[in-house]
DNA sequence: TCCTAGTTACGTACACCGTACGTAGTGCGC
DNA sequence: GCGCACTACGTACGGTGTACGTAACTAGGA
């Protein structure tokens, strides 16, 4: 009556099995693990329903019993790597704990370089996401602020971690995938960017590039950004 | 010798036309405009090489003369909406100027809701990106800091704008696309999330949801986040 | 001036994608 | 024990990006 999908579209809202008919051959964890394995070596584009089904050793369409749409498969993948967060008791120093959490998230994303691309299209209420969110709130207990503000902190921090790490991964993959890497860096930055700057249209950019020296320390930039975000929530600042 | 692609993969590094053979029928701007038009009504998934070619009134494979790979089409799209930034002379108040820039970026993204999804896979040195970056550095002239720090400010601010706006768009599209919108919100948040919380496994989350009241003011949250990030760079704080 | 090399234009073809649909087999709840 | 809900999966359809081959065209060098 209301269209094709009369069932909640969020996969976490439907039970894993209902207890009728033959028992399912796989768990969601199995499927997620297979998909993650494929994405880890082969990239996100290698994750297709056919491919995942083959990895599991079943027919393509059988997968649709477990995962109604491909988007839900992505959801399972995000949840699966969320399990890699090592939850440990808060130390009492909320800044240190949150920095640790952020660095761990970054490490996970570097381990699964497809993750940032998925992050921005996903629901965010998977079991492991809830677990991680709960843990963050736990770490933030010493901070005297309403929960709404703590939620904003977590959201902001996660956003910064995601965008920064996405950038790191993008640049690293760009230079890795090119056979000319060094030459490309020169050809583009000098011939094009340098060419643009030399037109005089971008005087401040030109000055900025003059000032910059040597390769930039990505982790340093990342940590500094974290500190700044945390500063913004620290009453002691 | 070195593989299939012996030409720089960044589209901005190759000239728009080379002056031999029949003159091109379209400019990059034409192509970008067509793609943006398609994405605006029809979503990003509607942007296919065939579709864009049809919109331009040419054969599919002709498009490949202008745009070697689809990824480059995305690059053109991002650059095209970057032109919507209205560059105006800095006011002297760098905080106000940067907030204006951020709000404008947010407005552009709300006008082109597919933009955030593209942002994290794109080179970032398109002409209009350079123009915008130059403008930001211009606005930041009154701020006494090295260029490296100003670059970090711009990066952090852009990251925050992108993630926040992406979230806004994601939630708004989720509730829009569902016929049950209100029911879904209840079914999921109460039946599932509430169910999870009721297990007692997430005490802090439970407390947070108890505390939350009424719908949240998205723009308020956004502005607050901006202010916080700027605080972190303001020597007067 | 003509020739030729580099471009544009574009149709065809291939491999792959998500998934709607139909059919067959299976085992729990009544 | 019956029936129904579930699993399993083959086939098929309409779509995708793009490699390749061919024909038309035009600017630079002879």
Topology record:
Two copies of one chain form a homodimer.
Chain A: H1 28-40, H2 49-56, H3 63-66, H4 70-82, H5 94-111, H6 115-119, H7 127-139, H8 147-177, H9 181-198, H10 203-211, H11 218-231
Helix pairs in contact in A: 1-2, 1-4, 5-8, 5-11, 8-9, 8-11
Chain A binds a DNA duplex (30 and 30 nucleotides) through helix 2.
Main interface by residue count: A-B, 67 and 68 residues
CATH classification, class level of the largest domain in chain A: Mainly Alpha
- Low-confidence parts of chain A: 1-7
Determine the CATH topology of the largest domain in chain A: Tetracycline Repressor, domain 2
- Number of helices in the DSSP assignment of chain A: 11
Corresponding CATH architecture of the largest domain in chain A: Orthogonal Bundle
**Basic shape of chain A:** flat
Into which percent range does the helicity of residues of chain A fall? 55-70%
The overall number of domains of chain A is 2
What would CATH call the homologous superfamily of the largest domain in chain A? Tetracycline Repressor, domain 2
The total strand number of chain A stands at: 0
| Computed structural class of chain A | mainly alpha
Radius of gyration of chain A using CA atoms only:
22 Å
Distance between the termini of chain A: 57 Å
Largest sheet of chain A: none
Q: Helix and strand string of chain A, N-terminal first?
A: HHHHHHHHHHH
